[in-house]
Write a structure and sequence with these properties.
It contains 4 helices and 31 strands. With about 425 residues, the protein is mostly beta strands. It folds into 2 domains: about 150 residues, Rossmann fold (3-Layer(aba) Sandwich); about 260 residues, Neuraminidase, CATH 2.120.10.30. The strands form 7 sheets. Strands 1, 2, 3, 4, 5, 6 and 7 form a 7-stranded mixed beta sheet that branches. Strand 16 and strand 17 form a beta hairpin. The two termini are about 40 Å apart.
């Protein structure tokens, strides 16, 4: 039964506003420090008011920063009168009020509506040292308000951690909402879903190009699991690999010049490298077992993959130059869907124990294995955010399979897609 499942899986505007000072707050990951943050409501600036714009911006920013796990929010019910005053500069902020409430950081912002034009200005302040940390001005239309909020959340994380957040990216996934398994795209909070394919067939295993402008996926549109490449902005798509048998789990290299995938053109599923035109460049594995689900290391020198060459499916790591492979996982009878983290130190994967699938991570030397999900239901298909802070995955714990996101330590899990369809195989884009 396990082998059968294993085989089935194979088919399976930002205008910069310069900061005036560098922060003295140091924080790098969830759980290391909880910063008290006062997040005030976006206020109108010399123009018509819009509860929808301010409410949407605040909602998105609050959700993003809450997911980060880096903050402890000050209760808005305790806010004093400075929360109702515009303060884009340090001299305009009543810092003692916020210090009285226990806040160490403060976010203020304004919006202005001029016809179809929307301008939002947002600021992050250091309350303790009474100074501006960073600010941004965003210009667009009312429909762009969510994108602006995601962008400022990214900027807040960059200021406080040294690395930009992942919230301005997008998530690709597979959904059968239309009746067929098609490729979809959504914001990182699950909003604004759009369908990208209309193959009226089975689409599987999306993966973004390094620049995030293209997506690889496998489709049965021509009655064979063929590898396609689709341009997100133009909608153009083309077959890349359509050899008889499997052309599945395509993953583009970090430099964008090669694609690792599983081919079964000679009978046995093996890992190959092809060029961006589909021409085979190299065979990585050559073994009697089934080799599948390749995942590149960030430097492109190694590929993690799944193989049953030593009996049960386990995670292996192969050198892309020599093809020499070493087994990574030693526990469990079934390990699958490896995803190499963007920092290069850890790999996420799925393990089945007692009939249930859960998400694990492990160091690339096989040490410090950690279980991140504990049911109910099955959790599979882990993929990392571009900054390594979060992991997206699919789970049927709510009934229908849906896309979830959690912090890289397994905390803060939340569902992104509705339960009105089956959603799986998520992929997090690079930052846009």
């Amino acid at each position: 039964m396990l082998m059968r499942w294993f085989i089935v899986c194979l088919f399976c505007l930002v205008l910069p506003w310069s900061a005036l000072a560098a922060t003295e707050i140091e924080i790098s990951s969830p759980g290391e420090q909880s910063i008290p943050l006062a997040l005030t409501r976006l206020l109108p600036d010399k123009g018509p008011e819009s509860a929808q714009i301010s409410g949407e911006f605040d909602e998105v920013l609050d959700a993003d920063l809450d997911l980060s796990g880096l903050f402890r929010f000050v209760d808005p019910e305790a806010f004093l009168d400075d929360a109702q005053r515009i303060g884009l500069y340090s001299i305009q902020v009543d810092f003692p009020q916020w210090r009285l409430l226990g806040s160490e950081t403060l976010i203020k912002g304004t919006y202005k509506i001029e016809g179809d034009k929307l301008t939002i200005e947002a600021r992050l302040f250091d309350v303790v040292n009474r100074k501006l940390l960073t600010g941004r001005r965003y210009v667009g239309e009312a429909k762009d308000v969510r994108r602006m909020a995601h962008a400022f959340a990214d900027q807040v994380l960059k200021e406080l951690t040294g690395e930009e957040g992942p919230f301005s990216a997008r998530i690709a996934y597979i959904s059968d909402l239309s009746g067929d398994k098609e490729l979809w795209l959504m914001d990182v909070d699950g909003k604004r879903p759009i369908r990208l394919t209309n193959h009226r067939s089975i689409v599987l295993n999306p993966d973004f190009s390094p620049r995030g402008k293209e997506i690889l996926f496998t489709s049965y549109r021509a009655n064979n699991p063929d590898l396609y490449r689709k341009e997100i902005y133009t909608g153009k798509e083309a077959k890349l690999s359509y050899k008889q048998g499997l052309n599945v789990a395509g993953r583009m290299s970090p430099n964008g010049r090669e694609i690792a995938l599983t081919l079964s053109k000679d009978g046995n599923p093996e890992i190959y490298l092809i060029g961006t035109t589909g021409r085979i460049r190299k065979r990585i594995t050559d073994n009697w077992g089934i080799d599948s689900d390749p995942s590149w290391s960030p430097d492109g020198s190694q590929i993690a993959f799944v193989s049953n060459r030593q009996g049960n499916p386990h995670i292996f790591v192969a050198d892309t130059f020599t093809g020499q492979a070493a087994r990574l996982t030693t526990q469990g009878k079934y390990n699958a869907t490896p995803a190499w983290g963007p920092k290069g130190e850890r790999i996420a994967f799925t393990r089945q124990i007692g009939g249930q699938f859960d998400i694990y991570t492990i160091n690339i030397d096989g040490t410090d294995e950690r279980r991140l999900t504990f049911g109910p239901g099955n959790s599979e298909h882990p993929r990392w955010s571009p900054d390594g802070r979060f992991i997206i995955y699919s789970s049927d714990k709510g009934g229908n399979r849906a896309i979830y996101v959690m912090r890289n330590d397994g905390t803060g899990a939340r569902r992104l897609t509705k339960l009105d369809s089956d959603c799986r195989h998520p992929a997090w884009s690079p930052r846009w």
